[in-house]
């Protein structure tokens, strides 16, 4: 018995199942029209796989229950066997301990597998909990033969069942609750907490056995109770207040007392009935049901949203002719997702709930005896069947594998596609079938969408729609096909895009001339433009834009060609089109919107001719993005031959460039000057003043400006340019032709050149005297310039002028001369006194001396000073001659270094030869030759260079303060010497 649930190969050969659904066989290997390879390399396991449990019961199996992997069976009269399917090698045997002749009528196991209710033929009930060995009596249940129990799936736990319903053979429905706790209350030690009648079922005016009971909760705390008798199916619907579920379901029955409960009745009865439910997940509400009764099997769905009846989509499967109530009445029924299994005394039949066809039939050998009951475990999804001598179970594997074919045959294509999402070859078959079905029913657009998703030959499908003259469906097919192509399939994409463009253009051409279809035409155009602007088609359209342009041109579709050009960012074509059609404002709008500088440069000449103000506004809006120099051709062309408006707009843009954008291009400034000189001379001087007064500040060409102003007779502007060019004489000469005051302002400009200033003022004075003959004004010139004297301007006056006009000027001049003479006398006296003091200082310096001790050392080398020639400075620093030369040498300029080298060479040349040392000492001072300095003079010159000042206290030290201690060129060598 330890190996009761060990799986093993069934000793009997599995009979060939009566599968009626079409399967892919090995003979179908190959490439079909869909492009998929269909091949079965090994035999697929059947949906219903039967296994016999290796178990020989010591006594006959009376009843059997299984739920939540807990298996219970009644053996013989007084034995109960419990097995945890998770631990099949640890069976548990419990003795009921009955002394009377009572037998087990039925076993009821709750969804948790913890509570077992045993109904006895003596109208008694026993209770056994999974965690105990003790069988306890349900005293309150005594006197009722329990036929069915509805467990509470929401509130049931391992220790308490919660409120449940129990149906009897007398048609009574009781509400009860069972607790597994010992001593549930102080006054009640029995497991049954309460047991009260809530309803009674009848058939033909008489009580009828309650064959099945089921409790489920729908939406908004609405509960449904389904109860069946031999030929009736009752529904009780009612709401239970939130938190009141523990109080039971009696309120639901009381809510249905006012009106007769909803039920369905069938005339034929076989003495009993059984209902089965399919629940997708544990602890959820059932989704469908199958009721085995006299007429056949009633099956359908459970719709919890319906207000009246819970049952929907109800159909009746009538028993096949081989089922005879006299010999092989149906015994039990089990419902799966797509099948219900019907148990007969010698076989099992599986019927597909989709089409009502028997898809599987399994005949059991006679040696095991008649089949007694079939049970489904909702947790493990296993179906159990038992006889008195054997136990079998069915594994249901991939039940939905062929459901798609059934739905497809029923033309329920959406449901068929749901069950073959992970099987592309099946999905293709469904789509092809759906497409063909839609085509035959003249639903061409739906057919096209489905065909596009299949792998059928593209040419065949296209020809099919062409022959049917369904251009709209063909277009839909091409669009859908295009949407599923990969970006790498460039050839196919190009073909479809080109074809679709032609189809769109054909349709637009047909609709365009019909005023009655104007709305349709606009919708078609909008659809076409969406197609052209689709991001997925952008690359293909761009690569083949020449072909698209040709198609658009061949159909004369100018508007869409412009739209396509904008999408392709081919703005040049768009602007050119508008210009050709004299729609200059539209062209400017395109330029302004896309702000392409090159297009502005190209089309501005044309636009400037027709809409100058708007063009200049667009230029100004572009700001620095535009290079004004590139726009000069457009401005020059139409400023010469254009209207006043064009000229004014040209000047406005040039002013914007110069004053706001601060363009420094010489060409721009020169052009603005030319415009001012020719058309707005009143602005010329203001511009010149703003441009600056120094040649480094201005951005126009001075020579060009001078020539331009001279050409147009703008003398004052010429004077301004002369001043900037520092041609003061020319400026004064020209200014005298305009205004004497202007000439005076020019004459004062050369501040550093008094001679030139005097010359310029003399020009002004001569002009005033000779040209204007104004003596008074000439005298004013003397007062304006302190460089002019009366004697400078007297030659300009004619001989007949009386001296009275110059009396005051001559007196002032004489006074200035006298004052100047006095200043010279004072300076001479100061110079004489200074020379006297200098001579005294020289005499004093000759008598000044310093004392050098024998232990004194050189400030540079720190060696005794007296062993070599040395220098003594007033600051008390003392240096050897060679040490001082070495210290001073790096600080000398190139000129002084060169001169020092020359003096040292001359000093060396004056040295006496060895054989001439007998000459007298005083001959050293004799000149060595004509024009040559003496030896003492050379030494004095050398001293002036190297001993002019102390190297530590003089100017050399101050100048070297910003020099590094280490020469940068010798830094690396010095650094390496320290490492």
From TrEMBL:
Record lineage: Eukaryota, Metazoa, Chordata, Craniata, Vertebrata
All residue ranges annotated as the Pep3/Vps18 RING C-terminal domain in the record: 852-959
Swiss-Prot/TrEMBL GO biological process terms: apical protein localization; bile acid and bile salt transport; endosome organization; endosome to lysosome transport; endosome to pigment granule transport; eye pigmentation; intracellular protein transport; lysosome organization
Domain of life from the UniProt record: Eukaryota
Entry's family note: Belongs to the VPS18 family.
Keywords associated with the record: Coiled coil, Membrane, Metal-binding, Zinc, Zinc-finger
Primary subcellular site in the record, as a coarse category: membrane
CHCR repeats: 623-777
CC annotations in GO: endosome; HOPS complex; late endosome membrane; lysosomal membrane
PANTHER family: VACUOLAR PROTEIN SORTING-ASSOCIATED PROTEIN (PTHR23323), VACUOLAR PROTEIN SORTING-ASSOCIATED PROTEIN 18 HOMOLOG (PTHR23323:SF26)
Organism: Lepisosteus oculatus (Spotted gar)
UniProt KW Metal-binding keyword: yes
Protein name: Vacuolar protein sorting-associated protein 18 homolog
Domain Pep3/Vps18 beta-propeller: 46-396
Entry membrane topology: Peripheral membrane protein
Coiled coil feature spans: 807-855
One example GO MF annotation: zinc ion binding
Transmembrane found in the keyword field: no
InterPro entries: Clathrin_H-chain/VPS_repeat (IPR000547), Pep3/Vps18_beta-prop (IPR007810), Pep3/Vps18_RING_C (IPR058919)
């Amino acid at each position: 018995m330890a190996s009761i649930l060990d799986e093993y190969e069934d000793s009997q050969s599995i009979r060939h199942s009566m599968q009626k659904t079409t399967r892919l066989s090995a003979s179908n290997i190959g490439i079909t029209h869909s492009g998929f390879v269909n091949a079965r390399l090994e035999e697929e396991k059947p949906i219903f796989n039967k296994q016999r449990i290796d178990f020989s019961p010591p006594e006959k199996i009376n009843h059997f229950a299984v739920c939540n992997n807990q298996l219970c069976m009644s053996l013989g009269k007084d034995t109960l066997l419990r097995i945890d399917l998770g631990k099949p090698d640890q069976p548990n045997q419990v003795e009921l301990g009955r002394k009377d002749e009572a037998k087990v009528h039925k076993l009821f196991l709750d969804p948790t597998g913890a509570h077992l209710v045993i109904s006895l033929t003596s109208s008694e009930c026993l209770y056994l909990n999974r965690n105990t060995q003790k069988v306890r009596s349900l005293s309150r249940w005594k006197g009722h033969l329990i036929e069915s129990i509805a467990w509470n799936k929401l509130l049931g736990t391992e220790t308490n069942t919660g409120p449940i319903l129990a149906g009897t053979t007398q048609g009574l429905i009781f509400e009860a609750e069972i607790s597994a706790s010992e001593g549930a209350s102080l006054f009640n030690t029995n497991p049954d907490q309460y047991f009260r009648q809530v309803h009674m079922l009848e058939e033909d005016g008489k009580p009828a056995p309650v064959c099945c009971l089921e409790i489920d909760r729908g939406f908004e705390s609405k509960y449904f109770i389904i109860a069946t008798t031999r030929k009736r199916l009752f529904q009780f619907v009612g709401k239970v207040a939130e938190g009141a579920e523990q109080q039971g379901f009696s309120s639901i029955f009381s809510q249905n007392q006012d009106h007769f409960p909803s039920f369905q009745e069938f005339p034929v009865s076989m003495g009993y009935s059984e209902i089965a439910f399919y629940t997708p997940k544990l602890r959820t509400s059932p989704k469908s049901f199958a009721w085995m009764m006299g007429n056949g099997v009633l099956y359908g769905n459970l719709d919890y949203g319906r207000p009246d009846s819970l049952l929907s989509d109800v159909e009746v499967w009538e028993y096949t002719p081989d089922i005879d109530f006299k010999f092989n009445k149906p015994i039990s029924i089990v419902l799966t997702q797509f099948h219900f299994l019907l148990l007969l005394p010698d076989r099992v039949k599986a019927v597909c709930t989709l089409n009502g066809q028997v898809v599987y039939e399994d005949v059991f050998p006679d040696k095991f005896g008649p089949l007694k009951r079939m049970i489904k475990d909702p947790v493990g999804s296993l179906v159990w069947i038992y006889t008195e001598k054997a136990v079998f179970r069915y594994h249901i594997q991939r039940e939905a594998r062929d459901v798609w074919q059934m739905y497809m045959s029923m033309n329920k294509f959406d449901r068929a596609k749901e069950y073959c999402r992970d099987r592309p070859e099946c999905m293709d078959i469904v789509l092809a079938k759906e497409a063909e079905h839609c085509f035959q029913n003249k639903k061409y657009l739906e057919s096209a969408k489905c065909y596009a998703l299949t792998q059928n030959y593209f040419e065949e499908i296209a020809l099919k729609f062409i022959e049917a003259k369904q251009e709209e469906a063909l277009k839909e097919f091409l669009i859908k096909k295009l949407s599923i192509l990969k970006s790498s399939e460039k050839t196919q994409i190009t073909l479809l895009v080109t074809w679709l463009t032609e189809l769109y253009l054909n349709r637009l051409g047909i609709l365009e001339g019909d005023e009655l279809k104007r709305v349709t035409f606009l919708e078609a155009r909008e659809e076409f433009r969406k197609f052209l602007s689709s991001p997925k088609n952008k690359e293909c359209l761009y690569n083949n834009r020449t072909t698209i342009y040709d198609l658009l041109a061949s159909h004369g579709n100018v508007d869409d060609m412009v739209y396509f050009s904008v999408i392709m960012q081919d703005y040049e074509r768009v602007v050119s089109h508008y210009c050709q059609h004299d729609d200059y404002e539209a062209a400017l709008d395109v330029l302004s919107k896309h702000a392409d500088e090159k297009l502005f440069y190209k089309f501005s000449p044309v636009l400037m001719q027709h809409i100058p103000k708007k063009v200049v506004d667009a230029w100004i809006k572009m700001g620095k993005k535009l290079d004004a120099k590139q726009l000069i051709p457009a401005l020059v062309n139409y400023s010469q031959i254009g209207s006043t408006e064009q000229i004014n707009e040209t000047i406005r843009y040039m002013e914007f460039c110069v004053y706001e954008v601060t363009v420094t291009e010489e060409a721009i400034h020169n052009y603005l000057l030319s415009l001012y000189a020719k058309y707005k001379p009143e602005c010329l001087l203001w511009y010149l003043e703003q441009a600056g007064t120094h040649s480094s500040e201005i951005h126009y060409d001075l020579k060009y400006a001078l020539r331009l102003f001279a050409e147009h007779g703008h003398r004052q502007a010429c004077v301004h340019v002369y001043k900037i060019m520092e041609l003061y004489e020319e400026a004064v000469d020209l200014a005298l032709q305009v205004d004497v005051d202007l000439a005076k302002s020019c004459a004062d400009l050369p501040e550093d050149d008094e001679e030139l200033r005097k010359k310029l003022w003399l020009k002004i004075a001569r002009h005033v005297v000779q040209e204007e003959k104004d003596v008074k004004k000439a005298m004013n010139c003397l007062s304006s310039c302190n460089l002019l004297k009366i004697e400078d301007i007297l030659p300009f006056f004619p001989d007949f002028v009386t001296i009275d006009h110059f009396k005051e000027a001559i007196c002032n001049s004489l006074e200035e001369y006298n004052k100047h003479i006095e200043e010279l006398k004072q300076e001479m006296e100061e110079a004489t006194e200074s020379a006297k003091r200098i001579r005294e200082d020289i005499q004093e310096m000759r008598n000044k001396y310093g004392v050098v001790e024998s232990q004194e050392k050189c400030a540079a080398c720190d060696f005794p000073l007296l062993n070599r020639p040395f220098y003594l400075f007033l600051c008390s620093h003392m240096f050897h001659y060679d040490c001082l030369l070495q210290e001073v040498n790096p600080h000398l300029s190139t000129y002084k270094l060169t001169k020092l080298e020359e003096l040292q060479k001359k000093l060396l040349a004056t040295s006496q030869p060895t054989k001439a040392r007998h000459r007298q000492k005083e001959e050293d001072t004799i000149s060595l030759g004509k024009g040559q300095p003496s030896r003492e003079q050379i030494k004095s010159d050398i001293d002036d260079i190297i001993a002019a000042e102390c190297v530590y206290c003089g100017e050399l030290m101050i100048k070297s303060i910003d020099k590094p201690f280490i020469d940068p060129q010798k830094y690396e060598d010095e650094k390496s010497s320290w490492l």
